[in-house]
Amino acid sequence: MRKTEIGLGAAAGTIGAVLAVLSMLHILPYSAKDVFLPHDAESVQIYAAILLAANLFGMAGAFTVSRHHVLGSVMMLIAAVVVLFLGFPWQSIPAVIYIISIVLAMVPVKYEE
């Protein structure tokens, strides 16, 4: 049934989307000393919009897992890679949940006869 994979992927997408919206609204702080994070408000908006789109894509992948587990896993993998490379430090939480969901979704389901 892959309920666990769907639940974890949807949770990761929801958490990531909420974190992206909070960073769009400048509620979550970011360090101006960090080399990889954007320093100005416009760049933060762009990064947050990309992260929001990636998390929504990952959530769509989570709901695809029930019909096509490989396609859903690839969609969540793309979202996890985008979140890991472009994400702010707090976006690592949904990335880890995506990875767990991807690993679980790639395991074949054995049906009893």
Question: How does this model look, in words?
Answer:
This protein has 113 residues and is mainly alpha-helical. 70% of the residues lie in helices and 0% in strands. Helix 2 (41-64) packs antiparallel against helix 3.
**What gross morphology would you assign?**
elongated
Helical region count?
Answer: 4
Overall average residue pLDDT: 86
Written as H for each helix and E for each strand, in order along the chain, the element string is HHHH
Question: Which bin fits the share of residues in helices?
Answer: 55-70%
Q: Report the uncertain regions.
A: none
- The share of residues in extended strands comes to under 5%
* CA(first)-CA(last) distance: 15 Å
Largest sheet: none
Radius of gyration: 15 Å
Give a brief rundown of this model.
This protein has 113 residues and is mainly alpha-helical.
List keywords for this structure.
mainly alpha
List the helices and strands and how they pair.
Blueprint: H1 3-24, H2 41-64, H3 69-86, H4 92-106
Helix pairs in contact: 1-2, 1-4, 2-3, 3-4
